[in-house]
Write a structure and sequence with these properties.
Elements: E1 2-9, E2 17-18, E3 25-26, E4 32-35, E5 42-45, E6 58-60, E7 63-64, H1 67-82, H2 87-101, H3 113-117
Antiparallel strand pairs: 1-2, 1-6, 1-7, 3-4, 4-5
Helix pairs in contact: 1-2
Bound molecules: zinc ion (ZN).
Zinc ion is lined by residues 9, 11-12, 14, 27-29, 31-32.
Length: 120
């Protein structure tokens, strides 16, 4: 499923995101747009205007994950809320769920494993 439908414009650095179907959002310089919300990943840009030699003038920073992964994270949050955890406690519960479930993105990559490794 599409969790976050978002791009980063290589021209201006803006990071527009689309929250629902037919919610097309342009970046600040209006060279790229994102659309589709959680329904589909649509990008709009003038293909004759490349940023440097890049094929696409944006970086896709969307988040996609299998439904089962989202269910596992939601279950971890539900438990944390039952235990009256504060915001940090909820974040820790989510990080533990990512570690324990071996969550992956829809394209099979490990999900933000560097988030956990960066904690010293
Ligand atoms: Zn832009």
């Amino acid at each position: 499923m599409i969790v976050s439908n978002q791009i980063k414009c290589k021209w201006c650095g803006d990071t527009p995101y689309s929250t629902h179907r037919h919610h097309m959002q342009y970046c600040k310089c209006e060279k790229v747009a994102v659309d589709g919300g959680p329904e589909y990943l649509r990008r709009v840009f003038d293909s004759t205007k490349q940023f440097n030699d890049d094929l696409y003038p944006y970086e896709d920073i969307s988040i996609t994950a299998p439904d089962s992964s989202i269910d596992a994270l939601a279950a971890a949050v539900a438990v944390a809320l039952e235990r009256h955890c504060n915001a940090r406690g909820i974040v820790y519960a989510v990080l533990r769920a990512i570690r324990d479930e071996g969550l992956v993105t829809e394209d099979g990559k490990e999900w933000e494993s560097n988030l956990i490794e960066d904690q010293e």
